């Protein structure tokens, strides 16, 4: 199995945002200690916090008796290890968020020939503008919004649909217009850092937003 065939972890937030770790060993330990395979140097993280183990048909995450806990998609991992699947969000001590990208989703998007525009490799959750990958990766909220617009390219997506796609049911109750606008602003800034000459996300006043791809 080549490195490209291995699953990866991607840091989603904070000073480690965008950093990637290839799961290229049978077991990989996550923790604060320097000898860990995935080093997260924060006091909230235990020295040996959690471990990802390869099994016959996939990978599992095991908490190593950490002080502040290990969570997958908001659920605490206790006792039996959690079987990981592509797209899982791992929270270490509710401090560091790591995205798990499955082995079948790590193959890079092949881009041939010169072209402009936005392209998304959905299995790998990778975004390309004019052939250049957005790095560090978008935050989970930014990605969920972009993929919603991308899947409805050229059509207006309402603010209600954006809220439903980006936030959980509980979170959605408190989402304000300002929060939506702030998310759009951050997403535009990320895209404009690569292609400042085209407005990809258009505001349709009174209705919502539309993706205008090149």
Q: What features would you describe in this structure?
A:
The protein has 214 residues and is an alpha+beta fold. Helix content is 19%, strand content 30%. It is built from 4 helices and 17 strands. The strands form 4 sheets. It has a 6-stranded antiparallel sheet, with no helix packed on it. It has a 5-stranded mixed sheet with strand order 4-3-5-6-9, with no helix packed on it. A hairpin with a 3-residue loop joins strand 10 (89-92) and strand 11. Helix 1 crosses helix 4 (177-192). The longest helix is centred in the last third of the chain and has 16 residues, at 177-192. It is elongated. The two termini are 37 Å apart.
Features:
alpha+beta
Short summary:
By secondary structure, the chain is of the alpha+beta class.
């Amino acid at each position: 199995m080549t490195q490209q065939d291995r699953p990866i972890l991607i840091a989603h937030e904070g000073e480690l945002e965008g950093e990637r770790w290839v799961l290229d060993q049978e077991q990989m330990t996550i923790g604060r200690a320097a000898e860990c395979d995935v080093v997260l140097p924060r006091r909230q993280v235990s020295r040996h916090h959690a471990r990802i183990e390869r099994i016959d048909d996939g990978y599992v995450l095991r908490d190593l008796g950490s002080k502040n806990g290990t969570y997958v998609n908001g659920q605490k991992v206790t006792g039996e290890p959690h079987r990981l699947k592509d797209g899982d969000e791992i929270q270490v001590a509710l401090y560091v968020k790591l995205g798990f990208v499955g082995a079948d989703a790590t193959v890079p998007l092949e881009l041939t020939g010169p072209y402009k525009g936005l392209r998304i490799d959905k299995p790998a959750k990778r975004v390309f503008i004019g052939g250049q990958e957005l790095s560090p990766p978008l935050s989970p909220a930014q990605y969920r919004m972009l993929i919603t617009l991308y899947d409805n390219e050229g059509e207006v997506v309402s603010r209600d649909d954006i809220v439903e796609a980006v936030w959980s049911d509980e979170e959605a109750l408190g989402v304000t217009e300002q929060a939506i606008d702030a998310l759009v602003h951050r997403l535009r800034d990320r895209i404009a850092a690569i292609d400042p000459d085209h407005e990809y996300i258009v505001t349709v006043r009174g209705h919502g937003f539309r993706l205008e791809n090149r």
